[in-house]
Description:
Blueprint: H1 38-41, H2 44-60, E1 77-83, H3 85-93, H4 95-104, E2 109-113, H5 121-126, E3 143-147, H6 161-171, E4 176-180, H7 193-206, E5 209-211, H8 213-219, H9 235-257
Parallel strand pairs: 1-2, 1-3, 3-4, 4-5
Helix pairs in contact: 2-9, 4-9, 6-7
Amino acid sequence: MNAHFRLGTQNPVPQGVSVRFRPEAPEAQRERALTAPASALAPLPHRLAAAAAICFALTACGGGGSDTPSTCSPHPVSIALFGDSTQVGAYNAGALQRYLEARFGKDGFSLELRAVPGTTSQQAIDGTDGLNLPWPQSVHADIVMSNFGINDAYAPLGVTQEQFRANLRKLASVAVAVLETPSPTTADVYDTAPMAVIVREVAAEKHVALADVQAYVLSVPDWKDHLPDGIHPDAALHELIAQNITGPVLAKAVEVARCR
């Protein structure tokens, strides 16, 4: 029986559906330390881009050793989360909110959920996800973090890799954009590794921040045990992702946006 189902719920794979599981990822993919910073998990071009973003933040706020007095007036920063059910799960877990509150206080930012379970990047661009208008008409936040790729990887939904790349370029066109690589799964019908490569390439090309969730999750020794249905991270994995990847990357973006 063909696996004709869509990511968008926390339910296990339906009975009667045959899903093949990929073999254990090569050990080299998990050699990074569990608490490695986000910049250390990205390839060299992305680490250079991250360094450039930090440099920009220092310049924007009068830092970096300049003799010019800072004219930065920090203000509350709004953040919008776009994506699929894994983004919804991350928001509901509350780990990202807790990380940012510890850094900026409850009044230093706002977090808005614009993600829709079961959707692709194409639906976000076209405004056919049932919530958002065509991109970027529903973008009103200072920072936009986008997490697509799992449903895009599901062939029956018809999003090619080149379409995915073109969509990411549009998603990265907002003022302060953060792109997330999709988390890995253990189901072959959702092979997200090629999509993660494209996200990294577009982030470097567009000089936007990258949260390499895929690389981080693969570095966690027991990561498969934290995917109850083979697709969606559990609360413990969401906590690790927020503390080590998405939280630190978003915090840097907040520092930049506070001084715009």
